[in-house]
């Protein structure tokens, strides 16, 4: 099989990375994709760095068995903990990560706080602190750890009273503060955008890093001349460590296929 016709692999701690895959399907409709969600071990954001590294290598090895031509680490926590080690180990293929889209939030140059919602590990890692340092002079940045939110989304609960009250409680620490924008620092979180807008109001801009990650994926495929030139619409295969029909059904619903 020509490298151009090989699939692109995606992995995440669960169903969250489907928000990135959704963008990839729009930008690269002729590519085949294989998605592995590690819902059995979700969430990654409360595990140790070593545990996340081990799980990230396991996911990458699984995808490589399917002869993928690139791997997208569609998980902020796994990117923070493992991306450098993955790139140093698998040097022959592009490995694309994701990070909180802080730059576009700062560039909006609006009055108020820039809130970064993320898992505790993403906010604790050196990669995130470097990102904060880079922009701290230009904006009032507030990290907001959201342990427990991934678990809702893993069950397919993306709107309704439960999520709404969870978000209200999280943002209660910022009551009375003007919020200019919210950066979604976990790939699970785009699925609760609608409910988040209800809580914060439509004037607060909500930003996620999916488009930037997918643009980088396309750029690397073009640079290496391995983009699929077929006219056929690509195929999508969804795998999950839970090995249950329910999680595959939730995945398809979130992916809107």
Automatic annotation (TrEMBL):
GO BP annotations, alphabetical order: cell wall organization; peptidoglycan biosynthetic process; regulation of cell shape
Uppermost EC category: isomerase
Keyword set, alphabetical order: Cell shape, Cell wall biogenesis/degradation, Isomerase, Peptidoglycan synthesis
Pfam family, one: Asp_Glu_race
Residue positions binding substrate: 12-13, 44-45, 76-77, 187-188
EC numbers for this chain: 5.1.1.3
Reaction(s) catalysed (UniProt annotation): L-glutamate = D-glutamate
Isomerase is among the record's keywords: yes
Active site: 75, 186
SUPFAM superfamilies: Aspartate/glutamate racemase
InterPro entries on file: Asp/Glu/hydantoin_racemase, Asp/Glu_race, Asp/Glu_racemase_AS_1, Asp/Glu_racemase_AS_2, Glu_race
Molecular function in Gene Ontology: glutamate racemase activity
Domain of life: Bacteria
Pathways involved: Cell wall biogenesis; peptidoglycan biosynthesis
Function summary: Provides the (R)-glutamate required for cell wall biosynthesis.
Protein family (similarity comment): Belongs to the aspartate/glutamate racemases family.
The protein's name: Glutamate racemase
Organism: Clostridium bovifaecis
